[in-house]
Amino acid sequence: MAVVIIRQDEKINAWKQALQENAPDISFFSFLEPHDREKTEVAFVWKHPEGVLKNYPNLKYIASFGAGVDFLLEDKSIPDDIPITRVVDPILASDMSEFVLATILDNLKHLRHYKVDQLNCQWKPQDYNRISDVQVGIMGMGALGTDLAKFLTLIGFRTIGWATTKKPQLGINMYYGDKERNSFLNQSNILVCLLPLTPSTKEILNRDVFKHLPEGAYIINVARGGHLNDQDLIDSIDEGQLSGASLDVFHDEPLLPEHPFWKHPKINITPHIASVSDVASVLPQLIENYRRFKKDLPLNNLVFRQKGY
Ligand code: GLV
Q: What is the pTM of this model?
């Protein structure tokens, strides 16, 4: 029995080496090297090439290397009864919270704007905002959203959250479902998307949502590109309903060279770097779940296919 590691980035060998060092009794293979596909029962996967999992006729368990599993659930060639797990990791959460904080402060103080001014030798002071001037609305109160809410509250931000299913007491005002969505949006000067991408959250960041935000609201999307209707964002910014956006994720990654986001003065883009699984921190849970799978024990962080996360 063996584990195949499938990812298309340059980190594949580092992951393989770290996994092998930490679990010498398990055979790990990169999907790029010769290996016995018939004997492979487990796959650790991040954004696999389409169709590649069909090559493993005896696959019994798939682990995502990240928090998201949308790329696995979209692959209709994966049989419905194969369990899928995802990563829930405190470092993934704190990295995300730090990134969102940096993005919010950058926006309140116009730092990236001054960088552009600097490159044009322009000296143009602008009014700035304070933490007390804004309320942050977080859409999606899973592990990442909850960590962010706690972090921002600690720093002094007024923070509210929106989710579809009831959460335990989180110490912030919560809004639920379609019924309370607009009350939540009305009060969110900065809207952060941390939802899972599912059929019901696809393009949830659209004109209808933007028009319920206070005028001049700012959008931060650190979840998935599929959450955003790109044209609605551009139109809402150009019409003045939104003051701008910071986007870390895109429908197509890398962002296509001809995409209008690149050159839009009020849209800041980063290359899907908000929070990336840390090998040392995530590795123990991948190995632990593999061992649980072998012993027929319930898997940690199992994905509920019907819910989509
Ligand atoms: C990153 O996007 C992740 O899903 O972990």
A: 0.95
C-alpha 173 – ligand 1 centre gap (Å): 26
The predicted pLDDT at position 212 comes to 98
**Does residue 290 sit in the same domain as residue 157?**
no
Q: With respect to residue 305, please indicate whether it lies within any of the assigned structural domains.
A: no
Is 304 among the domain residues?
no
- Over the stretch 23-46, which tens digit does the pLDDT of each residue have? 999 999 999 999 999 999 999 999
Residue 140's CB is within 10 A of a number of other CB atoms, namely 24
184 lies in the same domain as 263: yes
Site to probe by mutation for ligand 1, drawn from 46, 84, 92, 279 as the one with most ligand atoms within 8 Å of Cβ, is 92
**Cα four-point dihedral sign 223, 229, 235, 241:** negative
Question: Helices marked H in 10-119 — which ranges?
Answer: 12-22, 70-73, 90-109, 111-119
Report pLDDT digits (tens) over 224-254: 999 999 999 999 999 999 999 999 999 999 9
- Helix or strand (DSSP H, E) at 178: helix 177-186
What are the two backbone dihedrals, phi and then psi, of residue 148, each rounded to the nearest 5 degrees?
-65, -45
**Mean pLDDT on 100-126:** 97
Tokens of 277: 């699984």
Contact indicator for 32, 11 with CB cutoff of 8 Å: no
The two beta strands, 61-64 and 84-85, are parallel
Q: How far is the CA of 224 from the centre of ligand 1 (A)?
A: 9
In a domain, 36, yes or no: yes
The Cβ of residue 50 has, within 10 Å, a number of other Cβ atoms equal to 10
Structural domain harbouring 221 = 91-269
